[in-house]
User: Fold Acyl-CoA dehydrogenase from Mycobacteroides immunogenum.
Amino acid sequence: MAEQNSTPNDQFSFTPEQVALRAAVRGFSSEHSDELAVRQLMEATPPFDQKAWGRLGSELGVLGLGVPEDLGGSGGGIVDAAIAIEELGAALFCGPILGTLALSIPALVAAPDSPVRNETLAPLVEGTRTAAFAVPHQSGEFSGANVTVQATGTSDTWFVSGTVDRVPDSGAADDLIVAATVGNQRALFVVDATGAGVERTPLSTLDLTRPQATVRFAYAKARLLADSDKAVQICQRALHVAAVLLAAEQVGGAQHLLDLSVAYAKERRQFGRPIGSFQAVKHRLADMLVEQEHARSAAYYGAWALQDNTDDPALAASIAQATCSAAFTRIAADSVQVHGGIGFTWEHQIHLYFKRAFTDAALLGSAEEHRNRIAELVLDTATPAQPITAATG
Assistant:
């Protein structure tokens, strides 16, 4: 994998190693995430192929991207992770990408060095366990006021009680990263999701490929990951990284829909001509391409900025989400129109991407909410987040 740069680059370009990474993940996706596999897994229990997930960690090293090698990771950085997630998003890969790779692993990397951090991180990187991020947020920004879980205990023994709603990928997770209130402070804990005192209630959601659940803790045993001095920064770092990685996934899904639409416009004939020869269809496809390229630039700028610390992380994350959420939903809707009647049918794959597009657009804040945050940051009415890039001893 490409090494994370210690100083900002003047220009962004993909390295040969990153090009090879993209090819490897694309090949993996074609093998494990074709349309038939997606339809089967989204209704399965657990809702992903555990062997394929293990391959992502052990063989491809995708789950260790952005994790330092001394912590058992693959090295590289956020840009490398974005490349992999873009390809997985293009294939609508069923697996805890958001909960494990985009949220929990970045949080653990940013956490202080401790046995709890190391023991939790290693199996996630290897693909033998999964995790979910049970941390409430307000449109992708950590909000301590929204933390309702309470923690009680001592330095060695902790218990958490409370409820966290709509936690992505939590239904089948092995570990839960939980934000809880300790006195009047916030702290981060790791909870064994299969242990006593943890109840997970699956939710009916639009996107069956990305399940969510409400998680209830009733005096569940927990291990302290970070106290109040670090917990807020760690949560915010994880949410910013997740925002740009989710943007990369949105780019992948939008590219797949654009490719489908262009191919269909070349094949479908009306009045003895391919529909792609008609001006209205050509203009729609051209607009979709412009939206897609704009989204790709925003997503990779966000990943690059967070990796090299070249911009305010909150601003870079919100630009990526505002742009990519809008682009993916618009391209999904336009793809349905290009395909005509067939685009509305259950049998066609477009509806799967359509549902993913509108679900992704709501997970970490809507495009409108991120545009408002961008305006606040640019006008200096919001407090920029303090950068946190690596674990501290």
